[in-house]
Task: inverse folding
């Protein structure tokens, strides 16, 4: 088991006598009871953004066309769009002045997104900021991306991702 607070790996999972388990295991059914409060999906139907709602009642609503009401909601829905490789949604929610011409998931190196933790989120007028840590694996190796993202509410009333500052980049 992986203890997020103390950053230690324990060899035996508390719910099964012989299962080796950690936060980054491929089968989150084993880890989820331990880290559920740390924004890791508890089961396959739980939204990848880390909230305990189903995808259909959480980010799926935004992916279907309902505007995200806050920068945090937009950021969570964009994280989920990366997990599900929803390129059109990512482009549609990116501010036009910073939007790339296309999304190419073939260039992502086989990223497997593992979880999201929102550190802080706030709004000041038509601007918003969300700081988060996203965990992922590439070629079996675990990584963390700590980003502070900026958002803007445009004339159409919708929030858009502007850019982000990645810690350590």
Result:
């Amino acid at each position: 088991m992986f203890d997020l607070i103390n950053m230690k790996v324990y060899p035996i999972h508390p719910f099964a006598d012989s299962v080796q388990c950690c936060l980054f295991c491929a089968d989150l059914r084993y880890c989820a009871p331990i880290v559920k409060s740390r924004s890791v999906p508890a089961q396959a139907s739980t939204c990848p953004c880390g909230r305990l709602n189903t995808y259909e009642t959480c980010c799926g609503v935004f992916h279907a066309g309902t505007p995200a009401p806050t920068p945090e909601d937009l950021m969570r829905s964009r994280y989920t769009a990366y997990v599900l490789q929803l390129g059109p949604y990512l482009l549609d929610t990116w501010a036009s002045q910073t939007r790339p011409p296309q999304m190419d998931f073939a260039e992502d190196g086989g990223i497997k997104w593992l979880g999201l933790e929102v550190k802080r989120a706030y709004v000041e007028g038509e601007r918003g900021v969300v700081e988060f840590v996203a965990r992922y694996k590439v070629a079996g190796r675990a990584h963390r991306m700590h980003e502070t993202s900026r958002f803007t509410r445009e004339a159409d009333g919708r929030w858009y991702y502007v850019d982000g500052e990645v810690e350590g980049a």
